[in-house]
């Protein structure tokens, strides 16, 4: 497996994300209401997702799924984001699990979390999950540094 | 020779066409691969011309005398004794083939059957050794009862055993084999999953202590959720920070930004200190910020923010040091708008 948390992926993601941030910041907010902040948040979130998926490219299923979802989201953006956040919060219920075997509930839960692994077998899904986790960790690291930098 | 050809048919000709096929197959293969057997057979055959030819070839290197007995094909091949010997062997095989053709009415289907037999042999290899061994010994006993000559008995044995095995697999339903391959595939899949889980275990912190796949998957799910929420939260924070950010982003080109990020603690100290120094003047200085030329766009909204979050600004000194992550979006907004001005000031002073 290629190591996605290498410095090249990190720096490329940083560059892309910052470019997107600059682009978002060009459009000045008309008001400072929470609605405005929410819209801005959504755009930044999509920009972060898109930057990461673009850096990874089309060689991974999850990045392909993210890009496709962003493309499809142009129209029904708000409803989808609401549904997704509801879905994540609704998945909090714990499942009764055996000791050593992976239950279907867990598998489905992971399938919902990782984009683009809906119809995969378990092996490929775990592979995708590993890659996705690494990329998410990189993303969080970079974004936290940006936030820290700007918040001081 | 003819006796040998007949002998397998005699004992396996019990209604199955496989025996005829087997006999023909074995005979052809043996004769084509082992020329010396054919030569020996020719001596036994009693065909005196061929044996005389062999004697001539071996003794006098010239094949002149052989031309009287051998047909024109061998006459054209006069270069060496070895090639002519081969030719005689080939001729012998051709003869035997004709005999075979005459003896086997099912020869048209021989190719198809051969393919079937090959497939069956491949299937048989996967079966358990005990059954095969038993079958093989049985076939051996059968073969010893028949009059198969000594120099070809081993080869005949293997052929017969294969044919018997193919018969056997036709009789028996391949139940054991199916489950065997399924269980093999299942085991391979499980090993693959275990490898992937181990890989994931290294990625997810705190997952190495958990035993069992279910617990590990729980940890992984939690970690992915946590990371996704962190991304959400961080983008929310960035959204809250954003109105003030364009100066910074414009000041720091994207290409140089990673360098700033990597030495963030050193770079952040100066603005933080300046921020704290400017803080006491903050509530009483709306006019001071308004008079700055470039911040004119942001001043109305900043003042609005100040009105709405005035209570927050009183406790800003502590919040400033504790960092953004403990603040809500609105408080960080006001904090940042103030911090931006300070940073802007320090950047141009």
Taken together, the total number of domains of chain B comes to 3
**How many strand segments of chain B?**
0
Largest sheet of chain B: none
**Number of discrete helical segments of chain B:** 19
Strand content of chain A: under 5%
Q: Measure the end-to-end span of chain A.
A: 38 Å
Output the radius of gyration of chain B.
47 Å
Shape of chain A: globular
Quick structural summary:
The complex is a heterodimer of chains A (about 150) and B (about 350). Helices cover about 70% and strands about 0% of the residues of chain A.
Description:
The complex is a heterodimer of chains A (152) and B (349). Helices cover 72% and strands 0% of the residues of chain A. By secondary structure, chain A is an all-alpha fold. Chain A has one domain. In chain A, helix 1 (7-26) runs antiparallel to helix 2 (34-56), helix 1 packs across helix 6 (122-151) and helix 2 (34-56) runs antiparallel to helix 3 (61-72). The longest helix of chain A is centred in the last third of the chain and has 30 residues, at 122-151. Chain A is globular. Chain B has 19 helices and no strands. Chain B has helices at 2-12, 17-33, 35-45, 48-59, 72-76, 81-103, 110-125, 129-145, 153-171, 175-203, 213-241, 246-251, 257-262, 264-278, 286-290, 299-308, 310-314, 316-322, 329-348. Chain B is an all-alpha fold and 349 residues long. Chain B folds into three domains: 2-173, no CATH class; 181-232; 245-348. The radius of gyration of chain B is 47 Å and the shape is rod-shaped. At the A-B interface, helix 1, helix 2, helix 5 and helix 6 of A face helix 10, helix 11, helix 12, helix 13 and helix 14 of B.
